[in-house]
Amino acid sequence: MQLSEFAPRLTSLGIKIVTVTYDSHEDAKTFHDRNHLLFPVLKDEASDLIRLLGILDTGPQPGDAAYGIAYPGMFLVDNEGKISAKFAEVGYRDRPNYNEILSAAAKLGN
Asked: Which domains does the chain have, with CATH numbers?
């Protein structure tokens, strides 16, 4: 299941979704519009935030087209801005377990 399909379940718990990509503004906007996403896609072309969060995929090397990409994942942030849960996968084709995310999000709301 992709995040866009799962998003309504999270938003029903009061969870706001924001995604981060190292793609250019134009590529991010095209992806956002083509997939009719109901949440923002922030651009991080230098991958500064991706590095800060510790989710930089270390496989691609400088010069590779995928250099700077993040591992697929999700953070849950509480009302005070503190990261309360982190879900990330090393394989770029893998996605976090959405049932685990939903369970953590439900606990965050309590």
From this structure: 3-104 (3.40.30.10)
Q: List, in sequence order, every residue forming a beta bridge with 73; answer none if it has no partner.
A: 88
Q: What secondary structure does DSSP assign to the chain, as a single string?
A: --HHHHHHHHHTTT----EEESS-HHHHHHHHHHTT-SS-EEE-TT-HHHHHTT-B-SSSPTTSTTTTPBPSEEEEE-TTS-EEEEEE-SSTT----HHHHHHHHHHHT-
**Cβ neighbours around 52 below 10 Å, total:** 10
The answer, yes or no, to whether residue 48 has pLDDT greater than 90, is: yes
Contact status, residue 36 vs residue 18, Cβ threshold 8 Å: no
* Per-residue confidence (pLDDT) for residue 1, from 0 to 100: 44
pTM to 2 decimals? Answer: 0.70
DSSP annotation of 26 reads: H
Q: Across the chain, what does the average pLDDT equal?
A: 82
